[in-house]
Fold this sequence. Notes:
5 helices
Amino acid sequence: MDNNNKMTDNELIRRYRNGDVVCFNILLERYQAKVYGYIFSLVKHKDIADEIFQETFYKVIKDIVKGRYEDNGKFVHWVLRIAHNFIIEEIGKRKH
């Protein structure tokens, strides 16, 4: 097993901030099924779920790079909260 896969989320995030893009790919591989499954379970539409998933990880990348992620919680919960906010926003658009 590769040593990168043994690192904690916070170690991967720290290394990603320092320019190791492989570390973000590892985080994405760890959590993409869980995050996508969560999104899809709420929106029940593949295209919308795909879009929200992409928006979520785009924001995750931006926030990590800007130092907005604080490692005092679980990374995946933070990502799910971001996804949830995009889901709420999408539902609001569809109601109007």
